[in-house]
Design goal:
Two copies of one chain form a homodimer. Chain A is of the alpha+beta class. The first copy, chain A, has 16 helices and 17 strands. In chain A, helix 8 crosses helix 9 and helix 10 runs antiparallel to helix 11. The longest helix of chain A has 24 residues. Bound molecules: manganese (II) ion (2 copies). One manganese (II) ion binds next to loops of chain A. Chains A, B: Its cofactor is Mn(2+). Chains A, B: Its EC number is 3.4.11.9. Chains A, B: Keywords: Hydrolase, Manganese, Metal-binding.
């Protein structure tokens, strides 16, 4: 946990921002896998962590702004419990560590809220994402779970605070990145012909766990990097394959890292692989150099797309004027998703609170209809203190090519004939994490190799 | 998956057993960790696996007994989905593999059920354990999630079937045990002074994952074996500690193993450790030899307790007549929990369906008030085809000793003075998995070393 003052000051800022009513924070529970007492690893809700820091299940908290009261609701262990669990720090003591003096049994939360409701005070709550909290909110507020109506002022105040990272948060993110960087090097050393993808995933999970971290998200470790939502890890690595490894650690305090590297199983890229890799690398570097406060991330995304198109024209897969191609969204045949997202206590930071508040503003809302832009999680103007990812890629998706080709879609920009010979090419992504600083950006964490030369040298020196 | 015939025949048996109404089966979903799209590893519901075998999320099924119709409800991937996920086997094809011809979109499930309800037909469903299915049932049946009322005939029919393991199921359990046995040997090789418990847990998870398995449950790997519900793995191993390792693999098809071994960090047990270890081993062997059809497992539990008391009397920690001590439940100061439980697709098999149906019968219900017996998950008469665990232990729990001692509880059987010098002793458990056969029992999986001599030799030969 951070200092008592950290949590007190975060809460006091929040309280001033929302100004009236009761702020309700629901912690997470231990979620059942296949029966009630066989549970997934516990992960506290990130907003609860941000304001209270306690990584324990079955807690809730309120900040009663009108009465200037902060209370944590949860149950102390009974003597019976202690027989089974051993002595544990009391809830009282845990609460004192985040500066909350008052704790009450969990069962008293409902009546507290109902009392407030009776006096026509507003109960502010955030959008629930775990079903258990949807059920709980229904009970607490005596509404149908379908009628849950989160508080926009509460969401906006939380987003405003959590978006600007404190130095101690950046230090935690860099801790996650130090471990993640080693995970990526280990993956490069582990990969070899005829092992399964899951073998690599298991090795890097082992490394993360040994270094007091977990995965921040289910890793993508695949020879089919073009499949963007890919959890399958049963393929065997073959000579000539590239591996796309998108994985990151989460520290014990909950801070994430999110790195992607793509490297050849055989130690050397083929000519085609090297050429497209360098196109992605140029798009990455072009985007990175543009990062600074006041810039719209949507523009950085489109700039990166422009670099991709220029490179694809050089390779011969695209043609025509790159600027016009980007305006026509022709790059989305190769780059279907977004350039990056906010990162912090969540790998997609605050995604539970709603992309429209985190990645966009009311003045500059998301384009939810254009293929490509509708998958861009972050579009807004950057501010000092934002932490975000930059992750351009080229993905050769046979199903998408077939659809576009059938319609002869944007054929003034696409060289469909040559593209046919790339059908099985796969996908390439390069991803690092950056802090926006007053005068630009800072790479977070150690520098992880990414040039063709560095990767080939590393692979050559480390593979048996 | 097993053969088409397997699933067809299981369903046909079930259908005959329940005889009328609609049987509703809810599969599991991908559960959110910290936001909707960051999810825990998917695990299908075990009963759904048993009757349909499809390990994919967002499915439900019905067996409409009155109309002799079986339908799987779920959504086929759209062409848009395929761009993100790659080509996947269709739901139709998956369903054919378990012999179900008819599939419908998930959204049609509610109206099917409401139709049946209107014609006053019974909709049978099982107790939901994941909150998502509590919410879903509420919506499907248009009732408050608190008014959910599972079908006892359905539960009983499922329990009757799943309790008797088929040969192919036993083969799967033995696959899980083959991997688990290696995990335990690896743990013994990995343990050494000054590493953290989590280091061992990470190593065995790595092994499981490399061998196409997952953990069947969160492993207990601890120097505090006396803490029965212990997920903490941050302790550093010290000379003189014992490690209790309760961990098991789950195969890709969902079958579990559940093994416990306790071994000394230093390679050799101390005299006290060896003596109590041998007491537990004798209780283990005594219980094992008693396993056969027709025997009440509650009696095996009490017999095992009697062996523990006899050993504890020899050591001097207990006194008086062992039979009387067990009748007075004096052994529960050392052995607070149950001797074992059913095992299969769940590590505590069918625990979601209710212990009163799985481990007990109406004629011989559970003793829910006596300390010790109230934690015995299995008490009923054994039948050929049951798979269960045997896991006696001795747990020296300071908090419990203090409570009993203050009341001078059962002091005719307990040597409280000597016990004081054992306060920091820890805990020992030995656990294997058995099949009940016509003429007794069969150890499942490979034999995993458990004598003091074998463990000390193995540790000595394998620790650097
Ligand atoms: Mn990312
Ligand atoms: Mn067990």
């Amino acid at each position: 946990m951070f200092s008592v003052q950290t949590y007190q000051s975060r809460r006091s800022t929040l309280q001033k921002q929302v100004s009236s009513g009761v702020l309700l924070f629901l912690g997470n529970i231990e979620n059942p896998i296949n029966f009630e007492h066989n549970t997934y690893p516990f992960r506290q809700d990130s907003t609860f962590l941000y304001y209270f820091g306690i990584p324990a299940p079955y807690l809730a908290a309120i900040i009663d702004i009108d009465n200037d009261k902060t209370i944590i609701f949860g149950n102390e262990l009974s003597i019976d419990d202690i027989v089974w669990t051993g002595q544990q720090e009391s809830l009282k003591d845990k609460s004192l560590k985040c500066g909350v003096q008052e704790t009450r049994p969990f069962a008293q939360l409902a009546s507290y809220l109902q009392q407030a409701k009776k006096s026509d005070r507003t109960i502010h709550y955030l959008p629930p994402y775990q079903s258990s909290n949807k059920l709980l909110l229904g009970e607490l507020l005596q509404v149908n779970p379908k009628e849950i109506n989160p508080s926009v002022p509460f969401i906006k105040a939380v987003v405003a605070q959590r978006s600007i990272k404190e130095n101690q948060e950046i230090a935690e993110i860099e801790k996650a990145l130090a471990v993640s960087t080693e995970m990526h090097l280990l993956a490069m050393r582990t990969a070899q012909v005829s092992i399964q993808e899951r073998h690599i995933a298991a090795a890097i999970q082992h490394y993360a766990y040994d270094h007091n971290c977990n995965f921040a998200y289910p890793p993508i470790v695949t020879v089919h990097g073009e499949i963007l939502h890919n959890a399958y890890q049963q393929n065997f690595l073959k000579e000539g394959d590239m591996i796309l490894n998108d994985s990151g650690a989460e520290t014990a305090m909950g801070y994430a890292a999110d790195l992607t590297r793509t490297f050849p199983v055989s130690g050397r890229f083929t000519t085609r692989q090297r050429d497209l890799y360098n196109v992605v690398l140029k798009a990455f570097e072009g985007a990175r150099e543009r990062l600074k406060p006041g810039v719209q991330f949507k523009d950085v995304h489109l700039l990166s797309a422009r670099h991709l198109v220029e490179g694809l024209v050089d390779v011969g897969l695209m043609k025509g004027d790159p600027e016009e191609a980007v305006q026509a969204h022709a790059h989305t045949l190769f780059f279907q998703c977004g350039l990056g997202h906010m990162m912090g206590l969540d790998v997609h930071d605050m995604e539970d609170l709603g992309e429209q508040y985190v990645g966009y503003t009311e003045q500059e809302p998301k384009d939810t209809s254009t293929f490509g832009l509708k998958s861009l999680r972050l579009g807004r103007e950057l501010q000092t203190g934002f932490v975000l990812t930059v992750e351009p890629g080229i993905y050769i998706i046979p199903e998408l090519i077939d659809r576009w080709k059938k319609e002869n879609k944007l054929s003034q920009f696409i060289n469909y004939d040559l593209l046919e010979s790339y059908r099985d090419f796969g996908g390439i992504r390069i991803e690092d994490n950056f802090l926006i600083t007053n005068d630009g950006f800072r790479l977070l964490g150690p520098e992880l190799i990414k040039s063709v030369e560095d990767i080939e040298n590393y692979r050559t020196n480390h593979v048996q």
